[in-house]
Amino acid sequence: MTKQHVPYRQIRANYDSTTITVYQAYNNEIADAAIKNQKLDASTKFSPTRMTWIKPSWAWMLYRCGYSYKDACQERILALTLTHSAFLSLLHKAMVANHVGNETESEAKARKGGRPKSTKVVVQWDPERTVRLGKLDYRSIQIGIPGTLVQELVEGTIKIEDVTGKARDLKKLLDEDDNVDLAALVEKSLVPEEREFEVDEELRNILAMEEV
């Protein structure tokens, strides 16, 4: 069987004809308020000036937060349903990040306390992961929304769901069964059916999707 070609950089996500799902992890207070009010910035602990990173890839979200066990600031994973128009609008405001070690320039500045008021979304391409967190040979998009554009993300989010339990159930099953396959995980609703979310040539250029 001929091996299917997988583009080096691609946006993979769970989506339908009008919406797309992305993920981010928060602490309990932010997550509880967001779910109750169905608004991402419902909690006063949610910083409207801090860069917010969203990820369309479920496996990469699991990698980033260690299935929600990594630390208290990431113990609740939220699935954010965005309209296509909101998602694409944010991407059209993007620039591709340069790397400083394993972090972007924006992350480095934030860590050092210098947060310039950027009007650009920051896109970072990182190795995609399996649900067991191993590296794959293509890259997945991470999207950093600056404080100046966070309200656009808030308004474009039409549904918020807590998927922490799903992540933990998945981790438990993976630990118990070394042979469980992806199809079974999808059937159990522990892994979403993600496929490539295609964008037009203009946006592919903005996102540097042809680079290797």
Question: What labels would you give this structure?
Answer:
212 residues; alpha+beta; five-stranded mixed beta sheet; three-stranded antiparallel beta sheet; 8 helices; globular; disordered N terminus; DUF4291; ATP-dependent RNA helicase DHX8
Report on this structure.
- It is a single chain.
- This protein has 212 residues and is α+β, with helices and mostly antiparallel strands.
- The chain is 31% helix and 27% strand.
- It is built from 8 helices and 12 strands.
- The strands form 4 sheets. Strands 1, 4, 6, 9 and 10 form a 5-stranded mixed beta sheet that branches. Strands 3-5-11 form a 3-stranded antiparallel beta sheet. A two-stranded antiparallel sheet has the order 2-12.
- Helix 3 runs antiparallel to helix 5.
- The radius of gyration is 17 Å and the shape is globular.
What amount of the residues lies in strands? 25-35%
Percent in helix: 25-40%
Please tally the β strands and state the result.
Answer: 12
What structural class do you assign from the helix and strand content?
A: alpha+beta
Summarize model confidence as the mean pLDDT: 90
What's the story with the biggest beta sheet? 5 strands, mixed
Uncertain spans: 1-5, 99-108
Order of helices and strands: EEEHEHEHEEEHEEHEHHEH
Q: Report the total helices.
A: 8
**Backbone shape:** globular
